């Protein structure tokens, strides 16, 4: 596995607060970009404590998804005899918040990922210890936030239930599995999570902003909604491809990719790929054909 030349001189190398791992400080390599970061984006001992908490409390995501499923059942049963809530502007604000949040995460993590993909081979990117690969700076901070964001994204379903919209299997299945997967990726320190989080941030940035425009009824006529689904399908193609390649190296000495995590993530992405392709076909192919026939 190759290393960026700074390792030879010790330039921009630091020790993390977690396991004393040596990592390349991205904000030092690119000082101009580094000046745009805020002090709160640099993890402290608190961030290390969060990682320890996640490692010692694997019951939390399991309990959360169980309560989430129960809330869906109870919520739909309650709303069955209630009028739909007119929460369009609240939904718009929620989607705008998620769009801005996703954009922040994407533009913070994507430059570091591009740096790694340019300077290191792909095997390094999916096998190097996560704290070394992403560092213990802003990139790791936003990666950690990404995992926890899957908890509050569960509120997407709340708006569907109270507005009495159709709740698709793909929707709640995605929320449950992605939360569990992100948590396990963090605690297993699987490096490929770096790639997955950046791609997801990017897709959600566009997707939630589109949902925001839909909620305020300002969707641009030139924007084809099929782009959103295609982007989601491409995200799943990337996920499957990365998992297949990472799994081929997971059993090698020195590779930090968790074979268990990679297999689970591969199954998750493959199921998403099938479901999103099915959704695209039914929504845009069959429906369009029926409309033209009518």
UniProtKB/TrEMBL annotation:
Annotated Pfam families: ELO
GO biological process: fatty acid elongation, monounsaturated fatty acid; fatty acid elongation, polyunsaturated fatty acid; fatty acid elongation, saturated fatty acid; sphingolipid biosynthetic process; very long-chain fatty acid biosynthetic process
Annotated catalysed reactions: an acyl-CoA + malonyl-CoA + H(+) = a 3-oxoacyl-CoA + CO2 + CoA
GO cellular component assignments: endoplasmic reticulum membrane
GO molecular function: fatty acid elongase activity
Keyword Nucleotide-binding annotated: no
Membrane topology annotation: Multi-pass membrane protein
UniProt subcellular location: Membrane
Superkingdom field: Eukaryota
TM region(s), chain numbering: 59-79, 91-110, 140-162, 169-186, 192-215, 227-250, 262-281
Record keywords, A-Z: Fatty acid biosynthesis, Fatty acid metabolism, Lipid biosynthesis, Lipid metabolism, Membrane, Transferase, Transmembrane, Transmembrane helix
EC number(s) per entry: 2.3.1.-
UniProt similarity note: Belongs to the ELO family.
UniProt protein name: Elongation of fatty acids protein
Species this protein is from: Seminavis robusta
């Amino acid at each position: 596995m190759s290393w960026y030349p700074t390792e030879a001189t010790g330039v921009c190398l630091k020790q993390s607060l977690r396991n004393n791992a040596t990592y390349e400080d991205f904000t030092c390599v690119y000082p101009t970009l580094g000046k745009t970061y805020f002090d709160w984006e640099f993890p402290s001992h608190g961030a290390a404590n969060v990682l320890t908490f996640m490692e010692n409390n694997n019951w939390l995501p399991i309990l959360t998804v169980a309560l989430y499923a129960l809330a869906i059942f109870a919520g739909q049963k309650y709303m069955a005899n209630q009028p739909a809530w007119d929460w369009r502007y609240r939904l718009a604000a929620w989607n705008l918040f998620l769009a801005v949040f996703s954009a922040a995460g994407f533009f913070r993590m994507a430059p570091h990922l591009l740096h790694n993909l340019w300077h290191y081979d792909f095997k390094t990117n999916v096998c190097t210890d996560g704290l070394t690969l992403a560092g213990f700076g802003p990139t790791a901070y936003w990666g950690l936030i990404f995992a926890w964001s899957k908890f509050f994204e569960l509120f997407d379903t709340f708006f569907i239930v109270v507005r009495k919209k159709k709740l698709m299997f793909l929707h709640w299945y995605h929320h449950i599995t992605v939360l569990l997967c992100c948590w396990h990726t963090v605690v297993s320190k699987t490096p490929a999570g770096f790639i997955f989080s950046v791609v997801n941030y990017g897709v959600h940035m566009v997707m939630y902003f589109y949902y925001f425009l839909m909620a305020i009824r300002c969707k641009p006529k030139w924007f084809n909604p099929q782009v959103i689904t295609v982007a989601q399908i491409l995200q799943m193609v990337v996920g499957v491809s990365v998992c297949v390649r990472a799994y081929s190296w997971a059993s090698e000495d020195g590779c930090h990719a968790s074979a268990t995590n990679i297999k689970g993530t591969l199954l998750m992405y493959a199921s998403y790929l099938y479901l999103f392709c099915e959704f695209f076909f039914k929504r845009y192919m069959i429906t369009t054909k029926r409309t033209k026939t009518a």
